[in-house]
Fold this sequence. Notes:
- It comes from Halobellus ruber.
- By secondary structure, the protein is α/β, with parallel strands linked by helices.
- 28% of the residues lie in helices and 21% in strands.
- 51% of the residues are buried.
Amino acid sequence: MSDSDYPEPEGEVDTLSPATLATRIRAGEPVSILDVRDRDEYDAWHVDGPGVTSRQVPYIKFVQAEIKDTVAELAPDLPEPIVVVCGEGKASAYVADLLTTEGVDAANLAGGMDAWAELLVAAAVPTDGPTTVRQYQRPSSGCLSYLVEHDGEAAVVDPLRAFADRYAADAADLDATIAYAVDTHVHADHVSGVRAVADRTDAEVVLPAGAVDRGLEFDARLVDDGGALTVGGATLHALYAPGHTREMTAFAVGGSDPNGDGVGTAAADVLLAGDSLFLRSVARPDLEEGVEGAPELAALLHRTLTDRFAELPDDVRVAPGHYDATTTADESGAYAVTLGDLRGSLNAFSMDSDAFVDHVLSAMPPRPNNYQRIIGTNLGRERVDDAEAFEMELGPNNCAATAVDAD
């Protein structure tokens, strides 16, 4: 249905902005959601979070209930206030008006799920030094990206193409020049923004060297394990972290490294972990080589967590590539915790390799939407315009092996 097909609300309808909703969810506040889209749309993708209680009742039922004067009977069993959600914010506005007329404290999510998908929220990852690490959160998918700034230079790590202008604008606000646009690996859940950021800022595109083996078809600076990117007075130390993919590389943000030899990883302040280690789970190993190659990659992931990351101290703060609906942000509003906390809370760290592989392979969710096309796009094999790219990546990222792996 087009916007004109939905009747206009008869009264004034309270609205809630996507940004306000995200703030409440990020803080773990109780939130009641009434989603009036069809069931298949709801099942594929809906608003979620640690304090969210959600119900799905299709819009057409409210239309029928209004005709029969039974809207009060259809009001969902949800704690008030209720946020009503649809695709574009039109049908939900009408339903919110019906509920308000019946005395229900209801508000409409402005712009609906379309506006929810366009939201990018920024928070500061706590650091001990002068380096700024800004985390960008996309609540609709749980994707996280980063801007690292020091002394007027910056690097954007795992940028999303849909928000390339945002990274450039924020760097300008910091009076910083973006020197690098970095991907930790070939993403399967969202369209990478490294080339879009480079087009807007003249940043150098950086990928792990192993991306060439995946079939990379555009020019980029390639980094190996132990390589380093100097960003003002800070350094991003490349730490090879295979498992999710063979080329997966984390970046430890630390002090200066004038020789470019990666020295200083053990003194890192923040670990940009990409899709290796999450706050409530670990990465899935099947998106590159399918089910057949997943056991070997899962074993590599176990080695990454227990061996490769062993050189990192407990107090390094892990800033992952994704967060899920069970995760609550820290006091700064960021999704980041110390590696020591994860070593104590994630079951994966206490398992031997065989048990870890069995555990990871037994609990993988559905693969991300359009993941094969997204991989092809991120390697430069396929060309899609901005609108198609945005549509391709809608929905949950599903890059974790399990929804929750923490005690």
